[in-house]
Amino acid sequence: AMAQAALGAAGLHFDxxxxxxxxxxxxxxxxxxxxxxxxxxxxxxxxxQKIVGSLIEVVDQLAKAxxxxxMKAIGARNLLKSIVKQREAQEQQLQALIxxxxxxxxxxxxxYETLCKIEADQNEFIDQFIFQK
Length: 133
Description:
- The protein is mostly helical.
- Helix content is 87%, strand content 3%.
- It has one domain (1-132).
- It is built from two helices and two strands.
- Strand 1 and strand 2 form a beta hairpin.
- The model has no long low-confidence stretch (mean pLDDT 90).
- This is IFT20 protein.
């Protein structure tokens, strides 16, 4: 025990296998435990980085998909706008055609009325001519 104390004073110690060590057995054990904890911490950190990396990939894919859908929606909206404009233009053309046909109908109606009056006048003239004879 006295030899152990002398060695201890010199900073030398025996471990559980009676090997001579520079570190106290308790400090050596704590160092080994700390090394294991550090190794576990590094492993967990690496695993965490992998998880974060795959999460970032998923988020990137979702962002790309969302952008793609947004572009499709913009394309569809623009197509719809152009279809609406085409329909409006067609409607205006048809309204103009209707107005033109109404005017033509009115001219024909007036012409018909005039021809009916002429026919009536001629019939009256013929009747008078026949009755004079």
